[in-house]
Amino acid sequence: RIEYLLDREKTIGHAFFISVENLESLKKVFKNRIIPLLQEYFYNDYALIDAVLNKNGMLEISVENKDYLKNMTEFIESDKVVYKFSDSNNWSKDTFIKIYE
Fold first, then answer.
1. What's this model's pTM, rounded to 2 decimal places?
2. Which of 36, 46, 48, 98 could disulfide-link to 56, CB 3.0 to 4.6 Å?
3. pLDDT value for 73
4. Cα–Cα–Cα angle for 1, 46, 15, rounded to 5 degrees
């Protein structure tokens, strides 16, 4: 998916996963290495990052109280979608399997 969306020079190689021994270490690799790399590759375009992750649940739409913006609606996009990464403690084996399905 990365190659399709960007180019073949951008990859996530197996070296990132050499230290992975269990689900907890896989979560740590994704949280600390893979996700920051995807943010860099896609310039924080979370819709594209979500596509690369195959909408596996690692990203969720951020629902925030926007009352503080009510007087600025003429200056901002009102339909802007803001994403955030879900809590990695909630990532399961299936979360990672969904990337490849």
1. 0.80
2. 98
3. 61
4. 50
Contact by Cβ (8 Å): 59, 49 = yes
Sequence spans of domains, the chain:
2-100
Residue type, 90: N
- Which residues, 6 or more positions from 58, have their beta carbon under 8 angstroms from its beta carbon? 30, 35, 50, 85, 86, 91, 95
Low-confidence ranges of the chain (pLDDT < 50): none
Radius of gyration of the chain (CA): 16
The rounded distance, in Å, linking the Cα atoms of 42 and 49 is 7
Categorise residue 12: left if φ over 0, alpha if ψ from -120 to 50, beta otherwise.
beta
